[in-house]
Amino acid sequence: MSATTHPRGLFDAQVISNRQICREHFRLVLSVKDFPAAAPGQFVQLGCRDPHAPPDEPDEHEWIDADDPGLRTRSLVAPTPLLRRPFSLAGAEPDPQRPGCTLLEIIHRVVGLGTARLAGLREGDAIDLLGPLGNGFPLPRAGQRAVLVGGGVGIPPMIYLARALGAADVGGVAVCGVTTADLLPLTWADGVAADPQGLPTRCIREFADFGIDAVVASDDGSVGVPGRVTVALQRVLDHLALPAGDVVVYTCGPERMMRAVTEMSQARGLTTWVCMERSMACGMGTCQSCVCRVNDKSSDDGWRYRLVCTDGPVFDGRVLIWD
Amino acid sequence: MKNPLTTASGTSGYAFEYGDFVDLRLLGAFVTKSITLHPRKGNAPPRIIETRAGMLNAIGLANVGLEAFVAEKVPQLREMGLPVFVNVAGTAIDDYCQVARRLNEVDVVRGLELNISCPNVKEGGISFGTDCGQVAGITSAIRAAAPDKVLVVKLSPNVTDIAATAAAAVDAGADALSLVNTFTAMAVDVDRRRPMLSNGNGGLSGPAIRPIAVYMVHRVYSQVARKHNIPIMGMGGIQTARDALEFLIAGATALSVGTALFVDPTAPVKILDGLADYCRRHNLSALREVIGSLQFPEPGKGYKSTYA
Ligand SMILES: Cc1cc2nc3c(=O)[nH]c(=O)nc-3n(C[C@H](O)[C@H](O)[C@H](O)COP(=O)(O)OP(=O)(O)OC[C@H]3O[C@@H](n4cnc5c(N)ncnc54)[C@H](O)[C@@H]3O)c2cc1C
Ligand SMILES: Cc1cc2nc3c(=O)[nH]c(=O)nc-3n(C[C@H](O)[C@H](O)[C@H](O)COP(=O)(O)O)c2cc1C
Ligand code: FES
């Protein structure tokens, strides 16, 4: 894959809605004027400032560590994130109410300072973003089936991918892994439950709307198939029982999960597209912070670094070297 | 240079990486990522971590190496139509000199910025940039290797007295000085009790370092640069026109924007607008008039009170 050549830019965005959708996830919908065409797998860099904080005014603030709520500290000035934070697009479509605008959907989990600020956004607030960044997923050929494997905050790009598959009339199955039931950032379709054995059903609205079946797995067994997402994936692949050339696997989520998914699907000879995550400063290919290792026969030691932000975030599972 | 704004090395790639986001041609000059003799992969990730009002980086001088730079990036730089400064780094004086000799032949390169201040570049256990003898040695070696180029020496802030290393560089033939590079620093993962960066320590940049950088620019200006008429390229946490003015008033002639580009690649252009506005409001015929104009009123007099 070559570096992106699509136009990218810095855009002002207006918050259309920001709703909590499960214990720690929010769905943020933004309207952006003149946003370039985007594709599933691409991401944006959001500025995470609190528009309701008085500018530059010291403000005594109880600061609670998201990972460790026991770590409570009073600090005189509320910490403000400096760098932008990267988020996959969970959707991008024309804004029906505002001509020339695009509605961008972002699903984010509150894990720290920046995402806590995003959680405080309200309808009508203004934020800004860089995007669309990175390269999207190559879509399957006609006649192929797609298997979308998302874990936790890796689920959002799969929602956007399902929309694109629906538009291209490609069928598929989404396999969604979560640690526990109330961290599932998705909506149940009326009257359809997730099958505990891993049989794909139209149980998730975000996928069913585009003709995609879904299977849910939870580490603690509180919803769907008990166990890791790979347990469910194995059942789905067995159930589909299609020749290797007819299935394309897409995955995004924690690195250990993506590695297990890639190894499983490659053992079956399936093409696998992996959406990588790295800590990023710029997202634009300038700071060199977001590297991952790929095979490179021309290099002395057989590998080299590539940038997740501009060479990826989507990589062919065959080239990635897992650390 | 048509205006004082430049990109800081390592924060804007080799050439047109920011292409879609900002028209770099509006700037006064372009400074490239550090180039070394051989390609370098750089450190393992994570290479950055945000800290309060700043960030740590330990990229490890990842770059394509001299030959690929000349073959692939120089043609792009030619299209930019700006004075180009190539930042040069290495691990031994000989490496630096080989890079400098080759770049001396490249017409589009206006000058070299000598990076003797990267926390990861060491020789005999001493960073080139923190020992006056070494600063002088490497500066005069590069001066001889690249006689046709403007030589900017980028000073390390990780020293007791930056005026001493500045004087060493100027005496050894530097045409200009740039400061500051990043401050060696560390962030700790409290859950796992280990450094946040794979490299252990990194370099602190961003608004957190700005007041120290302004002080260092003023110190170098007042102790060394003014009397030798040596321009200073000031940097360290510049985000706004007000930040830029602090550096100019403290003695900088040019300004580099680094970390702020990651947040807003158009920041230098906005700063230029802000500077023009300042000139209008203060009836200045040229921005030059503010350079080094810092005044020290008598103790207790003429200071603005926060509580006025
Ligand atoms: C391409 C890409 C796409 C992404 N897409 C999505 C998406 O669609 N949805 C989504 O929710 N996320 C997504 N992410 C992840 C998202 O970017 C991060 O969750 C976000 O940047 C976190 O920012 P923050 O400021 O809230 O957390 P930070 O404050 O940056 O903290 C991150 C984590 O580190 C911990 N931490 C910080 N400092 C310390 C310390 N000293 N010791 C111990 N622990 C510490 C925090 O508690 C937290 O768990 C994506 C990332 C990438 C690269
Ligand atoms: C990610 C990153 C990479 C950098 N790489 C280099 C480099 O290769 N060579 C160099 O001389 N300075 C490098 N620097 C230092 C900057 O050029 C600059 O001196 C410093 O960041 C202070 O300015 P700032 O606060 O505006 O970023 C780097 C800084 C950052 C943040
Ligand atoms: S995040 Fe800066 S190069 Fe990828």
What does this structure look like?
- The complex is a heterodimer of chains A (323) and B (308).
- Chain A is an alpha/beta fold and 323 residues long.
- Chain A has two domains: 9-52 and 75-133, Elongation Factor Tu (Ef-tu), domain 3 (Beta Barrel); 145-273, Rossmann fold.
- Chain A has helices at residues 113-119, 156-168, 205-208, 229-240, 255-267; strands at 9-20, 25-33, 43-46, 61-64, 72-75, 85-88, 91-94, 101-109, 126-133, 145-151, 172-178, 212-218, 225-226, 247-252, 271-275, 291-295, 303-307, 314-316.
- In chain A, strand 4 (61-64) and strand 5 form a beta hairpin.
- The two termini of chain A are 21 Å apart.
- Chain B has 308 residues and is of the alpha/beta class.
- In chain B, strands 1-14-13-8-7-6-5-2 form an eight-stranded parallel sheet. Chain B has a four-stranded antiparallel sheet with strand order 3-4-12-9, with no helix packed on it.
- In chain B, helix 6 links the parallel strand 13 and strand 14 (254-257).
- Mean pLDDT of chain B is 92; it is low at 122-126.
- Bound molecules: flavin-adenine dinucleotide, flavin mononucleotide and FE2/S2 (inorganic) cluster (FES).
- Flavin mononucleotide is lined by residues 8-11, 33-34, 57, 59, 61, 87, 115, 118, 154, 181-182, 205-206, 209, 235-238, 257-260 of chain B.
Architecture blueprint of SSEs:
The complex is a heterodimer of chains A (323) and B (308).
Chain A: E1 9-20, E2 25-33, E3 43-46, E4 61-64, E5 72-75, E6 85-88, E7 91-94, E8 101-109, H1 113-119, E9 126-133, E10 145-151, H2 156-168, E11 172-178, H3 205-208, E12 212-218, E13 225-226, H4 229-240, E14 247-252, H5 255-267, E15 271-275, E16 291-295, E17 303-307, E18 314-316
Parallel strand pairs in A: 10-11, 10-14, 11-12, 12-13, 14-15
Antiparallel strand pairs in A: 1-2, 1-9, 2-8, 3-6, 3-9, 4-5, 7-8, 15-18, 16-17
Chain B: E1 5-7, E2 30-31, E3 48-51, E4 54-57, H1 66-80, E5 84-88, H2 93-104, E6 109-115, H3 132-145, E7 150-154, H4 162-171, E8 176-179, E9 183-185, E10 188-189, E11 194-195, E12 202-205, H5 210-228, E13 232-234, H6 241-250, E14 254-257, H7 259-263, H8 267-281
Parallel strand pairs in B: 1-14, 2-5, 5-6, 6-7, 7-8, 8-13, 13-14
Antiparallel strand pairs in B: 3-4, 4-12, 9-12, 10-11
Helix pairs in contact in B: 2-3, 3-4, 4-5, 5-6, 6-8
The structure holds flavin-adenine dinucleotide, flavin mononucleotide and FE2/S2 (inorganic) cluster.
